Amino acid sequence: MTKIFSKLHQVTDKARRILSGARNNPLFCVCFRSHVNMVEHGSYSKVQALNDLCATTFTPSGIPSPSSPAIRKLCSLLDTIHAADVGLKEENPDDDWGHGFFGLDRLSQAARWSQPITYIDIYECDSFTMCIFCFPTSSVIPLHDHPGMTVFSKVLYGSLHVKAYDWVEPPCIYESKGSSCPPVKLAKLAVDKVLTAPCGTSVLYPKSGGNLHCFTAVTPCAVLDILTPPYMEDAGRKCTYYHDYPYSSFSTRNGTEIRDGKEDDYAWLAEMGTPDNLYMRQGVYTGPAVNV
């Protein structure tokens, strides 16, 4: 997954010049309003409208405020997008190999886990990435972070369990002396629920909304993601995976006390390498073309 995300920041100089010119052109807002009217009359795709709105909203270093009108506008547009708008056909749960989140398998455990998550690029530049993840039942994207990033997620079909954390501030880190156990850092649970389409857009921010999250497919499902700015190791935005431990695992060793909420609202997170069982393949985008 890290290799997939590492290429998302790549963009040609020509595309950069075009995007920069569009943002600085006072006539662009007028053009965009006419494009929105075209969407309403069916002659302009929602994906193109989404891409244009992202291009005028995001910059390579700019992080939008949660209260920004542009955020609300983007969420409103995302809320109207369905699987067919991006060239997807909803999967039939009866055709899937699993039997739900905690159910029994129709085939062997090994066969079910061998099903890959499909990753589909829609558009990418140095300001944002627009992509789709298609999940078979019970497939998982393990707990990972989005350092310094804002991420919009829209479930297009099916049901997806989301578990997400935010770091506790000020940071609370426990390092076990003379032990092989890696350092752990305290995080607070932000989201723990199942999202079922149709549903509203979820947004996570650099320090709130569940910046560290894990996805588990309850049924076959697909998620449209917009990441801004994209993953870029050179800029310190590297995808890191974590293992979460119950709060009680380390709290008694270092005397940490809960300041807000219950023990179940907290967990200790330890960095880990890219999981060996993360099986992902590149898919082909078949929806409406995106023109820059």
UniProtKB/TrEMBL annotation:
Family per similarity comment: Belongs to the cysteine dioxygenase family.
Natural source organism: Manihot esculenta
Cofactor(s) this protein cannot do without: Fe(2+)
Keywords noted in UniProt: Iron, Metal-binding, Oxidoreductase
Keyword Oxidoreductase: yes
UniProt name for this protein: cysteine dioxygenase
UniProt superkingdom: Eukaryota
Reactions that this protein is recorded to catalyse: L-cysteine + O2 = 3-sulfino-L-alanine + H(+)
